[in-house]
Each structure stands twice: as structure tokens, then as C-alpha cells.
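Journal club side-thread
Mid-discussion, someone asked how the predicted structure for our own chain would compare to the paper's figures. Pasting it here so we can look after the session.
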Amino acid sequence: MKPPLKRRVPKPRNPFVALAIARKAGKHDKTPRARRQAEKQALRKRLEDQ
């Protein structure tokens, strides 16, 4: 007779991951770098038009 199969116990989940994922949720704004880049482009365009 075969021995009974052993069931694998799932690894416990990290409780901090759910909090970290929830923290980055929210309104979708541009990053500070993207904002700064857009401002530079707008300034260059304004100076070019003058």
C-alpha cells in the first residue's frame, strides 16, 4: 500500500505588501519629472515664438 500524499502548505503572505500596493493607489498625476519636462518644453516654445 502507498503512503498518503503530503499536501504542500502554502507560504504565508507578507501582510505589508497589501498595504504598499494600496498606498500607491489614487489619482493618476504626472510625475514631478514629467511636469518639469513639460514646463521646460513650454518655456522653450514661448521663447521660440517671440
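Post-session note: The chain is about 55% helix and 0% strand.
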